[in-house]
Amino acid sequence: MATPARKKVLLMGKSGSGKTSMRSVIFSNYTARDTRRLGATIDVEQSAVRFLGGLVLNLWDCGGQNAFVDNYLSSQKDTIFSNVAVLIYVFDITSTEWEGDLRYFEDILFALRENSPEAGVWVLINKMDLVDKEDPKRKKFEERKNDLLNVDNDVRKTLKDEGKGDNIREVLRCFPTSIWDESLYKAWSSIIHTLIPNISLITSHLTYLRDLCLAVEAVLFEADTFLVIAKSGSPLDCDPSDLDQVEIENGAKELDQQRFEKISEIVKGFKKTCSRNHEQYHGFEAKFDECTIILEPLTRNTYIMIISVDPRAETGALLYNVHQSSSHMAEFAAKHTLEDHKCGICRQNRELKYAVQGDDDDSIPAWDDPRP
User: Fold this and answer.
1) Per-residue DSSP letters for 220-287?
2) Residues with Cβ < 8 Å from 286, sequence gap 6 or more?
């Protein structure tokens, strides 16, 4: 059994920005309405979530009251900002103290860049639902985003002048979010996607499985949070112009760009209803006039959704292919060396060590061997 890859993630922002609410929606199955009863975070609350690829996310939710933030930047600086993989900083779009909020963020960014220069920085500008009616083109968001990019550039320049910024490679990224819609899932899925080990290997297997099933796409979700981990074909956040040939031929360009996040929100809501009725959610399968869909467990920590528009596709055949591939896909979560399943995709990939006994025996087909 491989040692899990532990990634430290800081969740920070001023008090009232919505950090704990979004954490509760994503990781504790709260509805947006449920978060109204949450209190302020006191100091630092830690939690852990296991994902595919042997990833354990160590989430540090840091209280945003001024006294706590001052403490993080002084006596707790080394503890808080060392060995960080990702900083997720949350701003309230309705804040009337933007200049002060920016100064706090700049101080935190300096502390992070000095102690964990290779950390990614994701900024979530939250509570967008409160301003969208009066600002439908989101001009205020773009202004805030530009201010934040300028702060990041200033911090980089200052550290570089001091000879400390050579290892800073990650670019600050901004997302508009609200706990009342799917934007929250899109932001968190994008963050988690960058942390998953062996992500290109996972994507390659999903693409092979998609093609085997005569499908448009195969999408992988984390079982508890239902965040999107990866998809077949083109990258998770790609522009419609970058879709691969199978996606283009099957009409993926016309599909809703927010479909994965909407599915996450719907399934989590349905799972919550099942729990209230003392039932357990297992999966979903359906055959419509224009498509066939299954949403089934793939490994202990993941679900896979496969969508086919080919009239020959049957739910039973899709389920069979998923079940046949599940044990091999589960290896990515448990091992650094692949040694149990002969696989042409893994043989050509360098993300994991490949040491399958009998691999040179042509009489033993790989699971992805096209021969009957």
Assistant:
1) EEETTT--EEEESSS-TT--GGG--HHHHHTTGGGS-TTHHHHHHHHHHHHHHHHHHTT-----EEEE
2) 292, 293, 315
Structure tokens at 214: 């005569």
- 344: pLDDT strictly greater than 80: no
Amino acid at 70: D
Q: Look-up: residue for tokens 């960014």?
A: 109
Yes or no: say if 87 and 115 are a contact pair by the CB < 8 Å rule. Answer: no
Rounded to two decimals, what is the model's pTM?
0.83
Sorted by sequence, the CB contacts under 8 Å of residue 272 that are 6+ apart come out as 29, 31
Cα 228 from Cα 262, distance rounded (Å) = 11
Which residue type sits at 293? I
Strands (E) across the chain are located at 5-13, 44-51, 55-62, 84-92, 120-126, 173-176, 217-222, 228-231, 284-287, 292-299, 302-308, 337-338, 353-354
Distance CA 221, CA 301 (A): 9
Length of the chain: 372
Instruction: Give the C-alpha separation, 102 to 149, whole Å.
Output: 11
Q: Could you give the CA distance from residue 372 to residue 139 in angstroms, rounded to a whole number?
A: 57
**Number of neighbouring beta carbons within 10 Å of residue 176:** 22
Domains and CATH numbers, the chain: 5-194 (3.40.50.300), 199-354 (3.30.450.190)
**Which residue(s) pair with 297 in the sheet?**
303
Which are the contacts of 343, defined by CB distance < 8 A and separation ≥ 6? 328, 356, 366, 367, 368
**What confidence tens digit (pLDDT) does each residue in 173-226 have?**
999 999 998 888 889 888 888 888 778 888 888 999 998 888 999 999 988 888
